[in-house]
Amino acid sequence: MTTKAGFLRARRPEQKQQRYAAILDAARDLAVRDGVGAVSLAAIAAEVGMHKSALLRYFETREEIFLRLAETEFQEWAPSTAAALAHAGPEPDDVADVLAGSVADRPLLCQLLLHSPLTLERNVSLDVVRAYKQAVRRSLEQMVPALHRALPALDEEACLDLFAMAGIAAAGLWQAAHPSPQVVALHAEDPNTTHYPDFRASLTRFVRVYLSGLLAA
Amino acid sequence: MTTKAGFLRARRPEQKQQRYAAILDAARDLAVRDGVGAVSLAAIAAEVGMHKSALLRYFETREEIFLRLAETEFQEWAPSTAAALAHAGPEPDDVADVLAGSVADRPLLCQLLLHSPLTLERNVSLDVVRAYKQAVRRSLEQMVPALHRALPALDEEACLDLFAMAGIAAAGLWQAAHPSPQVVALHAEDPNTTHYPDFRASLTRFVRVYLSGLLAA
């Protein structure tokens, strides 16, 4: 059964599970291609070959779909990054590069970090927000000790600060690095009027500088 | 003539100018009250007492209205902050506090910094984007020398870096500090699951730490 198959009503639990996963996959593909903000519930339904009303038996809202994807992003990001940090250091720049790279490798996470507080956490039930925040918390409970082991000079509070600000920087730099066609045209017209950063390079620079500020405090 | 007057068609240039300003004022009031993302063109039209079609003789789109407000925010922010920086320093923390305070005093700017790349710069003509980016550029041309005079150890590139990242941090921390009702309820249920920062305190801390990282580089 493919995501384009035009599903009949699922009756068995494994069929339901397949459809649930197919909806998430379709939303992920569209978000990577078009940007999270541009993906409607109707577009996800069309991509997966279901009616919108059928899709809403699986998810409360469009925003739940993306918040569930964000949950998965955190669940995947934390163990792989903790493992990479086990071999990083002792130079702070080395640790910063591993951390920045682990975020830059997840363009969907970078977008979802911006959309979560702005819209996703507003248009879902308390239960869905709780599941997402618990996933974030479990990720940080893995990541903080891993970062502290890589850089013992950084205490727990500073580790949390670095994660929080790296997330905010990733969300903002992602937007800045993927400008509108109008901004691209303006830059071509006169590079002095506006410029836009390379995402990975600017995030890496940010994490290096902020980490060095935390260590200097 | 008040903004609620239910305007007849404006014929004289000064009447047109009044309506243009009344539309901007209404959008600003609604954005401060409800958040930029929640303010529709229809709501602005209702607030100012005009038909939507009449309002669209003054502005291309909802997004132009907010990008014009962002232009004004930059035009007002730069001279007052440059003046405040003239009396700041020589301690980096002192300069950081002036800079962070000048941004935290402008909650509308903090919201518009997030919405500009995400939506505003996408739904307007090249001319409107050009006017906005030129206003940003002129602000930075005032601010960079003012910051460099307050902290001569910070070169021009580092000054620009500080402004760019302070803007991204302000946009992200503003969202984090103004969470959804669901996140507020979750925090009340169990403060360990999620927390949200105080906006001014977290922005000030960020600018201090990032500035110290730039000076350590």
TrEMBL record, chains A, B:
Sorted UniProt keywords: DNA-binding
Cross-referenced PROSITE patterns: HTH_TETR_2
Organism: Pseudonocardia zijingensis
Annotated coiled-coil segments of the chain: none
DNA-binding region: 40-59
The protein, known as: TetR/AcrR family transcriptional regulator
Source taxon at top rank: Bacteria
HTH tetR-type domain span: 17-77
